[in-house]
Design brief:
By secondary structure, the chain is mainly α. Helices cover 74% and strands 0% of the residues. Helix 2 packs antiparallel against helix 4 and helix 7 runs antiparallel to helix 8. The N terminus is likely disordered. This is Tetratricopeptide repeat protein.
Length: 438
């Protein structure tokens, strides 16, 4: 679930890069005669072979038109073949055999790339792009795009080990593709070539640089880091990046991903998982029947009937649950809520006594938190934390939840920062929620 979501954009980047490439005009051109000004140096043998290619290229581009498609590309290939003795590729190969100067190789590679695209010949495209880079004549502003084009082409060929250095060179040149997917594509390339450490190192550098500059890390970097940590089954790192992603780019979708990853990796005890499900409810991240049934299992209608009824009602209203999923449980829970609410005043009075025990205080905090009476829950949890023998991690987590629900975001962050043990991953996500709100 998480894997598919985080990587899905890579396929889009590859598909778009291929389509956009056809419309790019050549960056070099060759006059019929050698440039006498000394700015370019073409060999005599190469010029003789290349001039017919250049003329055929013009006619093919005219045939291609402004909106290339499979039909116009096939027609452009046919024009080039007809103009070049029936075999345009052979003409390119012959020109390559006599391309001796850097300028020869650069201009031929540029034109060969176009023919490779319209003829859908990725091997020829790779040869063309490498010829340009090896020539040393690519203009500085084209270094990034050419490396990116070559890296993407290797990626399409599933030669990930070859793709990685060219995509990295594009990144180092400061290039960013039109879809802003280079970082995600490079990270995926590292992983697919058996080098997940490089992927994680790359995005860590990007994240650290963003933090040092006082800006939010790129969403693509956070997603790539989270994917790498998730693949490695690294709970601590996954929680860190999940929290950063949701804090900086909060939405039901990112909260769903962040919560689901921690939920999958942490194998949380029931009570801690309940607190995670509470966060999913708070951020509108609950999506399907599994989410609602898991929440109900954790809340237990016999333990927290008010909270369970709230989840049942929302699940039914959103169509995530059907009446058949609940059977008689909803009616039974509604009955429990009536009797449970009747006992709340006496429970509050007991917990408010100066000599209230630890169990009385924590139970009261839990009950009032389940009914969204967060101010009362905060009071009882705060007092419970002062008692000897308290489960400080669980109580502090729930105190932080009560504070966050009241909009006391700074206080919630300070409280949640003290949480450790099995509750720590959930506390980090709740802290990220508070930070996103503040």
């Amino acid at each position: 679930m998480a894997r598919k979501f985080l990587i899905s954009r890579v396929a889009l980047a590859v598909a778009l890069s291929s389509g956009l490439a056809v419309s790019v005009a050549p960056t070099t051109a060759l006059a019929a005669k050698k440039d006498k000004g000394g700015s370019a140096d073409y060999s005599k043998e190469f010029v003789a072979e290349f001039i017919p290619i250049q003329e055929a290229d013009k006619k093919a581009r005219a045939e291609l038109g402004g909106t290339p498609n499979d039909q116009t590309m096939a027609a452009a290939v046919a024009v080039m073949n007809a103009e070049l003795g029936g075999n345009a590729k052979a003409a390119y190969e012959k020109a390559a055999s006599v391309a001796t100067t850097p300028d020869d190789k650069n201009v031929l590679g540029d034109f060969m790339r176009f023919f490779a695209i319209i003829s859908k010949d990725n091997d020829l495209k790779i040869k063309a792009l490498k010829m340009r880079l090896d020539s040393g004549k690519v203009a500085p502003e084209q270094i990034g795009p050419v490396n990116y084009d070559l890296g993407v082409t290797y990626y399409q060929q599933k030669d990930f080990a070859s793709a990685a250095p060219y995509l990295k060179a594009a990144k180092d040149a400061g290039y960013q593709d039109p879809n802003n997917q280079l970082d995600l594509l490079l990270a995926d390339t590292y992983k697919r070539s058996g080098n997940p450490e490089a992927a994680l190192a790359m995005v860590k550098e990007d994240i650290a640089a963003a933090q040092a500059a006082g800006r939010a890390p790129a969403e693509s970097s956070l997603r790539a880091a989270l994917q790498s940590a998730y693949d490695a089954k690294d709970l601590a790192a996954s929680t860190e990046y999940a929290a950063m992603l949701a804090e900086n780019y909060p939405s039901p979708d990112t909260w769903y991903i962040s919560s689901s990853i921690v939920r999958q990796l942490a194998s949380l005890p029931k009570q801690q998982n309940l607190d995670l499900m509470r966060l999913m409810y708070e951020t509108q991240a609950m999506k399907d029947k599994r989410d609602y049934l898991e929440y109900l299992e954790n809340a237990d209608p016999r333990g927290y009937p008010g909270e369970a009824l709230k989840i049942m009602n929302q699940g039914l209203a959103k169509g995530a649950l059907a009446s058949a999923d609940l059977g008689t449980e909803k009616a039974d829970t509604e009955a429990r809520v009536k009797s449970d609410k009747a006992s709340l005043p006496s429970q509050e009075a007991e917990a408010a006594k100066p000599g209230a025990t630890l169990a009385t205080l924590t139970n009261a905090g839990d009950v009032f938190l389940s009914y969204d009476e967060n101010a009362k829950a905060e009071t009882f949890y705060a007092r419970a934390l002062e008692k000897p023998g308290v489960d400080a991690n669980t109580v502090a987590l729930r105190l932080g939840i009560a504070q966050a629900r009241q909009g006391k975001y700074a206080e919630a962050e300070a409280t949640l920062a003290k949480v450790g043990g099995a509750s720590k991953p959930v506390a980090e996500l709740w802290s990220a929620y508070a930070a996103s709100k503040s």
